[in-house]
Design goal:
The protein is of the alpha/beta class. The chain contains 9 helices and 8 strands.
Length: about 300
Amino acid sequence: MRKNIIRITSMLFLFLTPSVYGQQQPAPIPNPTSLPGAESRVYKTIGEVKLYLHIFRAADRAKTEKLPAIVFFFGGGWNSGSVNQFVKHSERLASRGMVAVIADYRVKSRHGVTPFECVADAKSAIRWVRAHAGELGIDSNRIAAGGGSAGGHLAAATALLRGLDEKGEDPKVSSAPNALALFNPALDLSVLRLRESLGERAMEISPLHHVHKGAPPTIIFHGTADTTVPIKQAEDFCAAMKKHGNRCELMPYEGRTHGFFNYGRGDNADFKATLRATDEFLVSLGYLKREPAIK
């Protein structure tokens, strides 16, 4: 019981307000409005806040070909996080023939929002990409979403949650992705501390509790030693997906902790392994062509 409480507290540490700890926190650093090698576009304006998408595409792509896309959401406990997290993933997948997009979204430390606004922004990002698929050279029926930790939660939320769309957007343009690639995602928001912060509404944005038939094919990468988001969440989620006849692949990484997949961790072996498996998953969906074997 004590271990479970520690795990839950750890998972939601970033979401708690600084005043809880009685310490003055430094001013949050805003995300950059551009990234090297990417085309950056504003996809949403809320008051004075402009949110950007950073779009990576191969320079030698055929102009008439409609390419698959993937939209990444960074992690950070719905409180912080950097758009730089998935740059290396995006560069690699763009070189493989995808349009890779990194989405900025509002977070608590920078914008004073709750996870509900984070979900609304994520849905706006998917909807914007689909609405602009023609000019971006994207196949609107092959748009995947990915993310790590809270970003993984947002990717799953766009796929499974109905409603919570930003007012004024065109509901005829779907905000749901066609596939999911999730990295140690938060999928069960029924945990005690989050329900204390959000009340019973936490269940409204808990992906595990909104799995339904027809959900998009999903792959999940999770460390078995993750105490921030225990792997049981991924196990329960995949079980629920399969119960409804959906495809869900869970790839456990023995002894790995939270964020093990990130570029720059150790010798990058886990980054390379999870990215390779993501590539193979996308090949299985017909999003990418299989690379020729190296002799």
